[in-house]
Amino acid sequence: MTEAAAGAGRAHRVRRPGPGRARWARAAAAARRGTRLPPLVWDSLLPALLLVNVLTTHAPPDLPVSVALTAALALPLLGRRRAPRTVFAAVTAAAFAQWLVGVQLPADIALLVALFTVGANSGRRGTLLAGAVVQAGVLLACLRWAPEGAFLTPFVALTATVVAAAVLGVNLRTTRAYLAAVEERAERLEREQEQQARLAAAEERTRITREMHDIVTHNLSVMVALTDAAVYAQHRSPERATTAMLQISETGRQALTDMRRSLGILRTDEPDAERHPLPGIAQLEALADQMCAAGLPTRLEVRGSHEHVPATAQLTVYRLVQEALTNTLKHTPAGTTAEVRIHCSTGAVTVDVTDSGPCPPPPAAAPPGHGLPGMRERAAAYGGELRAGPLPGGGWGVRTRLLLDSGGAASA
């Protein structure tokens, strides 16, 4: 797998999981909410039933007072979701007025509904206070209306209903808070995953840009050098000009192959990525021959076996050497020679590229490029620090040491 392929794989893995399921879950919840009746319709059912009950069961002499008290107890429930404490206070006042009048009504259930609403929408202190108020009402009601000698039974039963209403309200509030926290966490995870996907995509673009820079810069530099040689030799030595043109053609085909191989990870129908092996340490000899043909005599020395070096690490070595030799070819005069030394050990690969040419102009006078930064990025992926600069005895050198056990293979 190339460096770009590794990044693309990670980008795809980041995009697959949770966000789609989270969006599906929210869409399903919205669909379920869309099929429900509005809350006001549900809140209107109990007041309507209580009013119908009082109209059909009470005698005409008590009807006006019963209807008025029932309305005072039940109608405030219509606004219980918007102002639970205000509604509870209104229902409690109506219940106290009912107690003062001495009328027993089924609408007293409105107290339990108001207490449930307070528990579902208020904190612990508000719920305890509302429960204490209702419990006081239970005590007053039992003292006034409980049969003689049977106070305890209705008091315990009504106390149990008060506790149940408060507990159900608190449980609903806790459940809502839990679901809200879960939804917030899902949205946060989705945002984080989308951010990771964007970062992976940006990293992937950087990898592809770096790979394309190395491929295009090297091959174009070689082709320019060979073209100049062919133009120079076309009259004096037509055979050498023909050889240079053939090498230009071969270099162009190799460049196309490298580009297809590197970009083939973006297309499932691109066969070149599988048909051609990745360039590595074994291909450095062909690279040195190519540079020699382009006018840069290059000597290659490989010490140690490279069979244990991962393919991605070998690709990094190849690109480092390729970029260093390309810079030498572009920035040094004719007659410059280059030397490449590769040392493979059990846990590291040392890359050392030197040339005999004059030092390049200082950075302030040279146009900015991507060569050295890209080389440093490649070396850093394997825990290496790339050093590039003039040599004491003249010439220019590039040196780094790649650590094979630093995890760079996964991140290169």
Number of strands: 5
Distance between the termini: 10 Å
Q: Over all CA atoms, what is the radius of gyration?
A: 42 Å
The main sheet orders its strands as: 1-2-3-5-4
Please, how many domains? 2
Largest sheet: 5 strands, mixed
* Count of individual helical segments: 14
Q: What is the N-to-C succession of helices and strands?
A: HHHHHHHHHHHEHEEHEEH
Approximate strand percentage? 5-15%
Q: Which segments are poorly predicted (pLDDT under 50) over 5 or more consecutive residues? A: 1-19, 363-368
Mean pLDDT: 79
Residues in helix, %: 55-70%
Explain briefly what this protein structure is:
The chain has 14 helices and five strands. It is of the alpha+beta class.
List keywords for this structure.
disordered N terminus; 5 strands; alpha+beta; 8% strand; single chain; Heat Shock Protein 90; five-stranded mixed β-sheet
Explain how this protein is built.
The chain is of the alpha+beta class and 412 residues long. It folds into 2 domains: 3-192, no CATH class; 284-360 and 367-412, Histidine kinase-like ATPase, C-terminal domain (Heat Shock Protein 90). Helices cover 66% and strands 8% of the residues. A 5-stranded mixed beta sheet has the order 1-2-3-5-4, with helices on one face. It is rod-shaped and about 130 Å long. The model is unreliable at 1-19 and 363-368 (pLDDT under 50).
Topology readout:
Elements: H1 3-15, H2 19-34, H3 39-57, H4 63-74, H5 84-101, H6 109-121, H7 124-145, H8 152-233, H9 238-263, H10 272-275, H11 284-293, E1 298-303, H12 311-331, E2 338-344, E3 348-355, H13 371-380, E4 387-390, E5 396-403, H14 408-411
Parallel strand pairs: 1-2
Antiparallel strand pairs: 2-3, 3-5, 4-5
Helix pairs in contact: 1-8, 3-4, 4-5, 5-6, 5-7, 6-7, 6-8, 7-8, 8-9, 8-12, 12-13
